[in-house]
Design brief:
- This protein has about 375 residues and is an alpha/beta fold.
- The chain has two domains: about 25-265 and about 305-335, Rossmann fold (3-Layer(aba) Sandwich), CATH 3.40.50; about 265-300, no CATH class.
- Helix content is about 30%, strand content about 15%.
- The chain has twelve helices and twelve strands.
- It has helices spanning about 5-10, 55-70, 105-115, 130-135, 135-145, 190-195, 210-225, 245-250, 250-255, 310-315, 340-355, 360-370; strands at about 80-85, 100, 120-130, 150-155, 200-205, 230-235, 255-260, 265-270, 275-280, 285-290, 300, 325-335.
- The strands form two sheets. An eight-stranded mixed beta sheet has the order 2-1-3-4-6-5-12-7, with helices on both faces. Strands 8, 9, 10 and 11 form a four-stranded antiparallel beta sheet that branches.
- A hairpin with a 5-residue loop joins strand 9 and strand 10 (about 285-290).
- The longest helix is centred in the last third of the chain and has 16 residues, at about 340-355.
- It is globular.
- GO terms for molecular function: magnesium ion binding; pyruvate synthase activity; thiamine pyrophosphate binding.
- Keywords: Oxidoreductase, Pyruvate.
- Its EC number is 1.2.7.1.
- This is Putative Ferrodoxin oxidoreductase beta subunit (Putative pyruvate synthase (PorB)).
- It is an enzyme of class 1 (oxidoreductase).
């Protein structure tokens, strides 16, 4: 547990300091009773028929989440999944927890209200690249900058699947789809870079078919207090099949996947052909052969996910490109900052302590009416 950090330490002082200590992500959420049998995957599996296309990557993610949730040790009645619109947003139906299938792009806004009013809940947001980054773009970045205590899983398949195959905000340039018959001219979003630019306190990326890695990322995200964004590369076998084959193929993985490990140099490749990331004198990052590196190549980049300055984490996210020449995977950023919902509740508690809570209905009515009200005959 980190030392207590007051609001003024983060917000620059002034009247906003209400002495709010940092907390673990699950601190306020009731645990399952010790005399209860340990929960299993079956306890988190609903009776609803799963209605995704055969081979959809969503199946793997669902299975991974259902298997992971018992590890939290929480009552399932205190876990909530909120989604927007899209294939991924059917997720809440298939989990035996509370949930809400909400409106297009607005899941972060609804989840913000719930997390602020109900600190006893573990609130998760399920969204896709279209839902989160097109119509929901504003809601996403404001949830990230506010640092609401949410865990956001962003399924990125680089296509609109539910509406049958239009290009999305993460589709690569030149992508031919039903809505771009001669190729997309849009520059795509990099969701990790976007989150780091918004100074999200937890940002990570994983693959749908790497269950061990995804489970590890989910553990860290759930334990984080604040907004945790996990981008998951997910295959759509109908409208964008093979979008991530370059990093799923065993023969290409080692040369392309950059596994981020805190405190370790950023490397890619197998033994004998390994490359290391360096920062050149002009500030640019590039890979050089580890065995041939000289001082003139630049300083080796060591990954620090706890660095409060996101500049290097952002730079690492930019070595990714739409061709997936090198793709960083893992936790990019994991820092602590007071959460929006904790701060709001702290202000409300302070106001009640200073003024006192209304003792009767009449007192409450007088408070609502205020001093500047009048009756019109």
């Amino acid at each position: 547990m980190a030392h207590p950090l007051h609001t003024a330490d983060v917000l620059g002082g002034g009247s906003t300091d209400i002495g709010m200590p940092l907390r673990h992500g699950l601190d306020l959420i009731p645990r399952a009773q010790p005399d209860q049998a340990p929960a299993t995957k079956k306890d988190f599996t609903s009776d609803q028929e799963v209605r995704w296309c055969p081979g959809c990557g969503d199946y793997i993610i669902l299975n991974t989440v259902q298997s992971f949730l018992p590890e939290l040790g929480l009552r399932k009645e205190n876990i909530v999944f909120i989604s927007g619109i899209g294939c991924s947003s059917r997720f809440p139906y298939y989990l035996d927890t509370f949930g809400m299938h909400s409106i297009h792009g607005r899941a972060p806004a609804i989840a913000t209200g719930l997390a602020t009013s109900r600190p006893d809940l573990s609130v998760w947001v399920i969204t896709g690249d279209g839902d989160a980054l097109s119509i929901g773009g504003n809601h996403l970045i404001h949830a990230l900058r506010r640092n609401v205590n949410l865990t956001i899983l962003l399924f990125n398949n680089r296509i609109y699947g539910l509406t049958k195959g239009q290009y999305s905000p993460t589709s690569e340039p030149g992508k031919i789809t039903k809505s771009t018959p001669v190729g997309s001219v849009d520059m795509p979003f990099n969701p990790v870079s976007l989150a780091l630019g918004a100074e999200a306190t937890f940002v990570a990326r994983s693959l749908d078919n790497d269950r061990a890695h995804l489970s590890e990322i989910l553990r860290a995200a759930a334990a984080h207090r604040g907004t945790a964004l996990v981008e998951i590369y997910q295959n759509c076998p109908i409208f964008n099949d093979g979008a991530f084959d370059a990093i799923k193929d065993r023969d290409q993985q080692e040369a392309r996947l950059v596994h981020l490990t805190h405190g370790e140099p950023v490397r890619v490749g197998a033994e004998g052909s390994r490359q290391v990331l360096v920062r050149s004198t002009d500030g640019r990052l590039r890979f050089v052969a580890e065995t041939e590196r000289t001082e003139s190549d630049g300083q080796i980049v060591v990954h620090d996910r706890h660095d409060p300055d996101p500049s290097q984490q952002f730079a690492i996210s930019r070595i990714d490109d739409s061709r997936m020449t090198h793709v960083p995977m893992g936790i990019f950023r994991q820092v602590e900052r007071p959460t929006y919902d904790d701060l709001v509740r702290g202000q409300l508690d302070a106001a009640v302590a200073a003024a006192g809570a209304p003792a009767t209905d009449a007192d409450l009515a007088a408070l609502i009416a205020g001093k500047d009200t009048w009756t019109v005959a």
